[in-house]
Design a protein that fits this description.
Blueprint (H helix, E strand, L loop, with lengths): L1 H6 L3 H19 L4 H16 L3 H19 L4 H23 L1
Length: about 100
Amino acid sequence: MALAYRDNSEYDKSVQFFQKALDIDIENFGDDHSNVATSQLNFATALVYLNNLPKALMLLQKAYSTFKSVFGEEHPHTEICLWWLNYVKDLIAKEGNQN
């Protein structure tokens, strides 16, 4: 549901479902599992569209760390997460330069 809402630009609805999915994944798999990292990445992308960059950054940092340790730096999940991480850092830097 969360992905469907996000892909249809219904970000407020999607973040509610992403939060639930993340909570369930953490409960079932623990903090350092690749399923949790995938939920964190998906959740973060919706938060970016809502301009909640600090929370998106936190989730992306956690997801990247997990992907890197589980899969390595050259795995597609790790690379996609790194792209989003750098993208959010750039957005935050641009916001800081506008003030």
